[in-house]
Amino acid sequence: MSHVNQRQQCAAAALRGDFPKQQDSWSCGHRLVLAFQYLLSSLVDGCWPPAMPASEFSDEAIRDFCDGPEEREEPEDEEDRPLVKKPRLDSSGAAAAPKPAAAESKADGNPAPQKRRKLSQKEQDEVDAQKGRELFTAKKMSYEKHFQSAHHSEKQPVGKGHWRVFLLALARDQRLTCKTCSSLRDMVLLPEPSESSQRSQQLVPQDTETAYSGKGRPRTGQDGKRLQPWLEQHRPGIYRPVRGSWFFCEWCQKEVNFHRPGLSGLKYLRDHENSKGHQDPALPRCSVVAAVAGKDCQGILVGSGQCDGLDRLEDSLRVWVSHGLIQCTTTDPLDPAYSFQVSWLENQLVVKSRYCKPAEGSPCKHCTKVAGSRNLAKEIIHWSSRIAMVEYCKVITLGTDQEKRLACDALVQKDCYLTKEGRRDIDTLLAIDNDIAAVGHVKRILESIPKSRLTTRLSSWMAVHVRTLLRSGPALPQERASLRILSESFAESILSGEVLREDVCLASKVLAGDLTSDSVVRCLIHSFLQKQDKVRRGVADRLCTSKHVDEHTMQEILCTLGNSRETRQLLAHFGVTLGGKVSVQFENSLLPNFFVPNRSLDTMRSAVQALLPSTTARILGRWGLFNKLQQRNLAPSAPTIAGTRSWFLAVDETYWRANWELISGLRGEMENGRDFHCLPDVGVPDDSNLSKMTLDIIACCSYSLRQPWHLAMIPMPQGQNQKGIMQFRILDMVLHCISQETPHLPIGIATDAGACNKLTQDFLLGEEVPKAVIEDTRFFSRCESHNLDFLQYVTWGYRSIDGRPLVGSLDALHTLKRYSYHHNSCQRTIYWGSYFTDLSAMLAEGLPVKAYALADVQSDDASFQRLNPRYLQDSWSEVGAHVYVMISCLISLCTEGSEKISLPGRFRAATCAYGMLLLGLWAVRRRFDKEWTRWYLPIQTLRHLAAICTQQMALCIVVPDTCTVLGNKFQEKVAEYHYGSLKAPYRGVPSIRDAIVGGQLLRTKQLKNRQLPQPGKPCGRLTKAQAQALSK
Length: 1032
Hints:
single chain, alpha+beta, 3-stranded antiparallel beta sheet, 39 helices, 15 strands
């Protein structure tokens, strides 16, 4: 206290206050803050020493302090607003103290309101982007229909972040460099037509006397002067109105925001015009010549004495104009070297400025400044000297000695040589004695220009004049003299009209061998000349020929132009005929003919033979090549090359684009009356015969996802029933042909859970098939049915032929996707025993909302997320969800996750999942009786899950000891990967023709690949006794 007394010069003493006892261990700091706040309030109020009442530090006061100040609600109407601020209630000590003067302010007892946290740049960008998106959608506009479509129609690229930049500029009303985005922004921000018309009627004053131009806001009933009429009067043709305070500057070629629609925007107008990139409208008057009043500007006439500096370079300017005014890209549009224009007036050149103002007189100050500019003179000297150097190099490479001397004298007599810049470049060239070195010097000067600065005109000029210099080396003096005489003779013939210049150029290119680079052009020209020769000899028949059309040229013409009637008529004008029948042949003994092989048994057998090693050995054995290729590990092989049954057939369907192409995508059916795989000879084909979907049968390894082999591709009719029977018969034909060629049959057939695959899967599970379906089959009719009845509650089994088992495989990913969908749909609530399944609690653990809400029911990732156990909770309401995830894990353990699992582990997982599915069905039917379908999985999904378990149990028991069959490879998903490889070379949706070409391309790549998949160890199999023991 002594320190306080010394500093404040007062007699202060520490007194003990009557405070309530603190009952907790955390409010000491709060009490200190309340005490200090009350002390300051008492000091301002003039009440000293403070009374420190106990009510200020009670538990209720501390809780009010923790809750913070209450927000004051703003009154809705003006009448509700208080006229006088209510005074704060004084404390008991302050009530007895004298009041301060009225001028002194009273402290507020409430703490100061918390300041609003300033958003970071990233957060502010997110807020603005959302605001721009709301503005865009408020106009009923979308990203795909308006933004992407507008950029596509204008051929403008949409790079990364382009959409976000547009949204930020839309929200902040900023300038955009993209013209398409600028027009879209104006469409969004411009008011509605009715609103804008009403606004324009309000903004335009009816009487000029009522317009207010003073300071501050306009008075009542008066409108302020607008900026747009002022610009039209004082800046005509410079600023074009866009919307509101936005204008387009014609000189800068960009949008400018003046921020004010009234004359207060003149401040921003001056800031823009004082910027570096804008040309000041008040250009300084040139001292060369004065403007002629009362006459429109006609420009500067070169050689008339109006500009002495330009008159001295008249010849150089004429040379530059004759070569097209070649220049590099513009660095500064306002620079006179890039802002001039040249025209002809009779036989004289006229130089004008791009910003010429004819009304200012002739010549105007803009044209005068451009003509007298030093930068324009340097540009004329620069390019005219280089043109003269190139012409000199042409003479020293092809001209005679006398022509060289004349060219040297002419070079030093040019007006550009009289300048310092031109003399320096020309003297450097003339100092080089070697002709080759001189040409190389000139070529290096011009070819060293950066590619980014080359214009189209300059590039074309260099290709004609510079890059052709010294292509074949310098000629001998005798050759130069002969060339000069020949050139003069040709020149005289061309001038007299006897020989056209174009014919001479064409003949020179033909002699130079340019036709050999393109076989199609060579074929067309030679055929045309041969046709003209026949016409001159009087031949009237067979004017066209196919003599110059080889196989490669024919394929090139067909792939480029097609094989239509119009193409043949066009080729007939050139004298080319393609013959009677033209087709692209894919028939090769090493390539399978997989497109519609079911049209005959021989066709199907040839498609099968291309996959089997025995047939491949017979084909290559005719030339003795198979043994040599096999020694080098180059022999083409299919999955059966190892001589085992470690392969299977994957059956799937996919969609293509339906159209008429070189290889048509037509229906393929076994009936002759509806077999349209070959295009009939009709004028207009029927589009109803087109097919968008194909049934594909693919041979795949059972131990690797690599190298699937396309066996059959059959276009399927759209909207027709009984596709399952058609698929069953095609599979029968395929397996019959395989059994005729090799004893190593595939281990089984893999499909998805589609309706057309039900007949095939039921047959492979050992169920009875209608007699009308199976009696006409060659392979399936000889198969025997085997049931796994030695396992408890298992009624299904597998098929076999001649003791060789044939097992089905239902795709686990496709089935589990349905399994997770039914657990999360709103159509049913699934019970497992006494526990219902509710996945909403998984949201609290991080399950994505899109996966929970079934935003994409076909998404594999979303189904995997719904089956992920990391989102489960240890709660009584999650028991059903735990059972739901456990069953999916058991099914995955014997299918997709079975590669590192032992054989007993796979079998035990399959039997457990099978038993839990049946147990859940029994419990639900017992509890809900006839209403059980509302509280359990659909019967079809339950059958699919039980079929997967049965098939995996059969694989563990009946697979031969020499086979390697993995549960995650023996799946229909291999066909999906194969479709991705077929469609990879194409953009968009490919057609069936593209599928055939892509299939053959993939086949040849597989034949070229030497790294074949290596089979692992045989999986082995369980005995019946072991299986019974594991199933209990």
